[in-house]
Design brief:
Length: 669
């Protein structure tokens, strides 16, 4: 059981309101989503106020008890040793042999000479009785245990007394105590945090850091609800896993959650957030998004769409040359997608340097997924930095050399950014040329723009396309090979609409509804970005729960797209659910207004390239499904195909898809 946004207890999958909305097909209607109950929110705030007040009040007796303990330990002296030893004399009857005077004199424990003298005296007193108590057996741990107990008490008392006599340490102790009390008082008027695993002192939920994946967060959501709270050191993390909470974050409070979080590695690799993907919401981000849309993703830029047509036409020809043998389809799709992105973004028509770029891309993908202890404990950011920084510098240095070649070539060409065939780099260089060297601002004084910004934006284009478009295309083909009936239905539609005497053209895509359903279903089950990263720009309240400023908000698109409340057979690949007049989700689109289906995100931080990305995947899948019949290698059955994924900024297949193509068309590819 978990709680819905209104605070009522509901079943594991969610609440009945979302379920009935899904059955009725009103996925895009805001009214179909559950609303939050303000009375429940007020109750939560009152409960949180009571708990915080209780914690603050309890601080005072705890501090007093701590002072009493220190005074008691400080009063412990060697004259009291025999009294403590007499209390422990019963250990002899169940312990080991008595220790000699030499053992006491060379003990590894840190105790005073007077304490050792008292123990020697006590040993002499009990030695005549030892054989009677122990039944004639030799003792092995008796005096060692006594020495250990007294040593730990004495050392602790010594340390505490030294701290209390050191004014600096005493001030630090007072500072942390007052900080804790003030923090609890500050939370008196705040809403409570959402439910979640109970954090440990200081480190919080660091033991669950490996659960910050789409599947790990989905499993935690089943236990704690659609909005859960985790704390890693001083960092608060909130995971959103249901459509109702996604709507609250991505729509109702879009402005408050439009910032992007970044780890230490991401901050360095993106030239200090100089790119678009990790830049905070502001004038710079808006200007760069506008530039990308007009110079890269717009339908009016013919070069981009020609690159898609020619690139995936080359994909079909490359597969055709290896018909009848096993083809590493995943690797082939990825490499040709890189080629498409190169031509679309940089007007590069040759494949020179692609192998070098793939190596850089793989290293960047690994580094961007790494956490450093400084991400959770800022004052420990210096720990283990030497090897970490060296690896970051090497990766960014390789990228600098690679991108500098592209930028220098465009600078020599000197194309006007207003030309219809000008690409993204030409537009970025126009911004750079307009910059004032003295102030670092352009003529309009809107944003600061340097060569680092140019390289960071190019990096976004290089890394965003191949990972997302290539991965989605591979998943779509893998799902159809895992469910051959869906592949046969798509091939029949292609044969009816296009025919077997020619290849697929871009103009055919609008007449292939089942193809669009296949791509939608692949995006639902395997969203390009499984966990959408957001950061709270201010203190917020979501569903009656507190989300402090600077917290990371992870919108689990993978879990939302598989919410059992919103989707029938949520874990089954069934494209017909999107077919008009046939499926229950026929009205859903990819524009981000349906919060049960957010493969590209929603709101102002939604993917600006979703139109181009969807078109590229549709064209690639159509070429592969229409041009060839597919079989799995080595007699593998469809049910035996590995469908596991690996987590990162994207979720590629754990193993590349390999299959055997057989030509279907009567015309050359």
């Amino acid at each position: 059981m978990r709680r819905s946004s209104s605070g009522a207890r509901v079943s594991e999958g969610g609440d009945a309101a979302s379920s009935s909305a899904a059955a009725a097909g009103h996925h895009g209607d805001d009214a179909a989503l559950p609303t939050f109950d303000p009375q429940s929110a007020a109750g939560r705030r009152e409960a949180a106020r009571t708990r915080a007040l209780g914690r603050a009040v309890h601080c005072i007796p705890v501090l007093l008890l701590f002072c009493v303990l220190v005074l008691w330990l400080a009063s412990t002296s060697p004259v009291h040793i025999e009294h403590h030893l007499r209390e422990d004399i019963f250990w002899v009857q169940a312990s080991a042999s008595p220790c000699s005077r030499n053992t006491l004199g060379t003990s590894k424990y840190m105790i005073s000479s007077s304490t050792k003298s008292d123990l020697v005296t006590f040993e002499r007193k009990i030695s005549p009785h030892a054989s009677t108590w122990l039944g004639g057996q030799r003792a092995s741990f008796f005096f060692e245990r006594i020495i250990a107990r007294l040593s730990s008490m004495a050392v602790f008392a010594k340390i505490v007394m030294e701290c209390l006599h050191d004014p600096i340490l005493l001030l630090w102790l007072l500072f942390f105590s007052l900080s804790f009390v003030m923090l609890q008082i500050r939370r008196l008027g705040c809403a409570p945090f959402p439910p979640g695993p109970k954090p440990l002192p200081i480190i919080g939920n660091m033991a669950l850091v490996d659960q910050l994946t789409h599947r790990g967060l989905g499993a935690l959501a089943k236990q704690y609800g659609g909005l859960l709270h985790l704390r890693f050191g001083w960092l608060h993390v909130f995971a959103v896993s249901t459509p109702e909470y996604a709507r609250e974050v991505l729509h109702a409070q879009d402005g408050a959650f439009s910032n992007r979080p970044a780890t230490m590695a991401v901050h360095y690799l993106t030239y200090g957030r100089s790119d678009m993907a990790f830049a905070h919401n502001g004038a710079y981000w808006r200007q760069m998004r506008k530039l990308c849309v007009t110079k890269m993703f717009s339908r009016r830029r013919a070069e981009t769409w020609l690159a898609v047509r020619d690139g995936y036409g080359a994909l079909a020809r490359a597969v055709g040359r290896r018909s009848g043998e096993a083809v590493n389809l995943g690797e082939l799709i990825f490499n040709l997608t890189v080629s498409v992105i190169f031509r679309a973004a940089f007007s590069e028509r040759d494949d020179e340097g692609l192998d070098e770029f793939v190596v850089i891309l793989q290293e960047f993908s690994r580094l961007m997924g790494l956490f450093h202890v400084g991400d959770f404990f800022p004052w420990l950011s210096w720990v283990g930095r030497r090897g970490f920084d060296r690896r970051l510098r090497m990766a960014r240095g390789a990228l600098d050399r690679f991108i500098d070649k592209i930028v220098d070539e465009h600078a020599r060409r000197g194309k006007n950014a207003a030309d219809p065939d000008a690409d993204l780099v030409d537009g970025l260089l126009a911004f750079l040329a307009d910059a004032d060297p003295a102030s670092g601002k352009n003529r309009e004084g809107a944003i600061r723009f340097t060569r680092h910004n140019v390289k960071a934006m190019i990096m976004d284009m290089l890394f965003g396309g191949p990972e997302t478009v290539g991965s989605t295309t591979e998943w779509a083909m893998a799902e159809m090979m895992h469910s051959p009936s869906e592949l046969r239905r798509l091939q029949q539609e292609l044969a009816d609409v296009v025919g077997l005497d020619r290849t697929v053209d871009e103009s055919d895509l609008i007449r292939l509804p089942f193809l669009k359903c296949v791509v939608k279903e692949a995006l639902r089950m395997h969203p390009p970005i499984p966990v959408l990263l957001h950061e709270a720009a201010k203190d917020c309240v979501v569903g009656g729960y507190s989300v402090p400023r600077g917290s990371r908000v992870l919108v689990n698109a993978w879990a939302i797209n598989r919410d059992c409340n919103a989707w029938k057979d949520a874990d089954t690949f069934r494209p017909s659910r999107f077919m008009p007049g046939e499926g229950e989700a026929a009205g859903l689109d990819l524009k981000g207004g349906c919060y049960e289906f957010v493969p590209f995100g929603s709101g102002r931080r939604s993917c600006p390239a979703q139109g181009l990305g969807q078109h590229a995947v549709e064209f690639a899948v159509a070429q592969l499904a229409h041009g060839f019949s597919w079989e799995l290698p080595d007699g593998m059955k469809p049910a035996e195909l590995d469908m596991s994924d690996i987590f990162g900024l994207t979720t590629p297949r754990a193993t590349r898809l390999c299959a055997v193509p057989t030509p279907r068309l009567t015309c050359p590819l």
